[in-house]
Amino acid sequence: MPERSTVTINDLTFTIHQNGPADGPAVVLLHGFPQNSTEWEAVGERLATAGIRSIALDQRGYSPGARPDGVPNYQVSELVSDVVGLLDALDLPTAHVAGHDWGAVITWQLVAHHPDRFLGAVPVSVPHPVAFAEALQTDPDQQQKSGYFQLFRTEGKAEEALLGNDAAFLRGIFTGLDPAHIQAYVDQMSAPGALTAALSWYRAMDLSSREPFPEITNPITFVWGSADIALGRVAAENTASKVAGPYEFIELDGVDHWVPERAPEAVADAIIKQIKTS
Fold this sequence. Notes:
- This protein starts with a strand and ends with a helix.
- The chain has a single domain (about 5-275), classed as Alpha/Beta hydrolase fold, catalytic domain (Rossmann fold, 3-Layer(aba) Sandwich), CATH 3.40.50.
- About 45% of the residues lie in helices and about 20% in strands.
- By secondary structure, it is of the alpha/beta class.
- Strand 1 (about 5-10) and strand 2 (about 10-20) form a beta hairpin.
- GO terms for molecular function: hydrolase activity.
- Keywords: Hydrolase.
- It holds the Pfam family Abhydrolase_1.
- This is Alpha/beta hydrolase.
């Protein structure tokens, strides 16, 4: 079973859940919106059986002790700094990293900007940032799938929509997941300031940025479900052309957006394979 503890990074207190042997190869697991490290439980158990140490982080805005006020505190640079700081706090010179949804966004950033610390990456659901940006500009399907951005970036309106009527909208996002997990996610987002902090990740996005993205040469395994309602095929398939190093694309036929919970075996196997071959 995962062990819960806290760690101080950037003067904030984060909750982490660790599983597997302390001396095993390490992988950091990053959750997405609007979840937490709970989404990695089944994956972490499989990794532990394979002798791999997993560190699942409740990220900025999700850990109660790491919930600063103000949208600027949720810029990507701050979120990346937290994960690098996690390695420092745990005295880990290097690790692999896997992330789902927003966690995948940070995963891409980590392996691109800190290739000496993050030896390989398994981004889940979200494609390479450049492939996604191009699809958002040119692909009608992705434009339609990303239509919710406008709501999530609107302060007050998004919180009301998601939490109103006993969080019916928020609960509906998770249709079909473990009811206990759904309740845990809803409870977390219902805490004072928690949903606003989580939505600040969206509100801090710079959708107009054209800053060049560093070349990625470390191993990448991209896992994507073909039934994802938020991330389309065009960007998923174009990701291969954006990666310079070893690359594998795993398409999970008929799997929706919640990949780590829908297909934990496939995600764990991808992480295990990458760690053992890189």
